[in-house]
Amino acid sequence: MHSQRLRLVETSLEQSLEILRDVYRSASVVKSGKYYTSVNQLCDQVPALKPQTLRAAVHAAAQFGTFGATKLLSEEDKGSPIATAYCLETGLPLCIARWYPYEIAGQVAVDLSSEYFSGSLYMNGVEKGDKVLIIEDTLSTGGTMIALIEAARKVGAEVVGAIAIVEKEVNEGHDNVWLKTGIDVKTCIKIDVTQTGVVILGD
After folding, report:
1. Contact 163/152 with Cβ under 8 angstroms?
2. H or E element, residue 87
3. Cross-strand pairs, 161
4. pLDDT at 8
5. Which of 94-98, 107-111, 158-162 has the lowest average pLDDT?
6. What's the pTM value of the predicted model, to 2 decimals?
7. Extended strands (E) in 62-185
8. How far is CA 95 from CA 34, 73, 74, 105, 151, in A?
9. Is a pLDDT exceeding 90 seen at residue 35?
């Protein structure tokens, strides 16, 4: 039996959210395909990711709990540091979907089209009957989240929840995921990325 009790942190939730907002206020912006995207400490380790920033991300995600999950799922790129820390915080096993295949039994491949990448995502470790909570860094168009949900369901697991630290609201990822999967992704802060910088919505 895995303990799903989230440990207490010294900072308040609002303090953790403000740490995350500051990360995005100071982020640089580049053009990625047809989208502007931020380059920042949390997702890109530019500058290097500080422990307090990672702790703030986990604290922000923890406000939503674990949804009764028995396993966590993320992808090996930008979401993996946050998901790894959430694994340590909750005691839940973690599966990481990859961008390349292994020649092993039980692997699931799904198509993926996101803001940054189009191709396939390969998942191992999620099994029939698992209750899966997906942890991601950013919800943009929703492509990665949809692929992870579809991969988990493909093996007979139940996706009980999904959390992304940051939501690029203008890209309509929340609505895309809801319409295609019925999952209501929970997000911690909302941003808009423009040519001149990152705008924190609600500031």
Report:
1. no
2. helix 80-90
3. 133
4. 47
5. 107-111
6. 0.92
7. 71-75, 94-97, 108-113, 118-123, 131-139, 158-168
8. 31, 5, 7, 15, 12
9. no
Quickly list DSSP for 31-63: EETTEEEEE-HHHH-SSPPPHHHHHHHHHHHHT
Strands (DSSP E) contained in 6-152 are: 28-32, 35-39, 71-75, 94-97, 108-113, 118-123, 131-139
- Which domains are assigned to the chain? 13-200 (3.40.50.2020)
| CA atoms lying within 13 Å on the CB side of residue 178 | 7
Among candidate residues 170, 172, 187, 201, the one with its CA nearest the CA of residue 135? 187
Measuring CA to CA, which residue among 173, 168, 189, 203 is closest to residue 29?
168
Q: How confident is the model at residue 200 (pLDDT cuts 50, 70, 90)?
A: very high
What are the residues whose beta carbons fall under 8 Å from the beta carbon of 31, sequence distance 6 or more? Answer: 37
Lowest mean pLDDT among 21-25, 30-34, 68-72, 100-104: 30-34
Find, among 30, 32, 22, 49, the residue nearest to 191 by Cα: 22
User: Tokens in use for 136?
Assistant: 């991601």
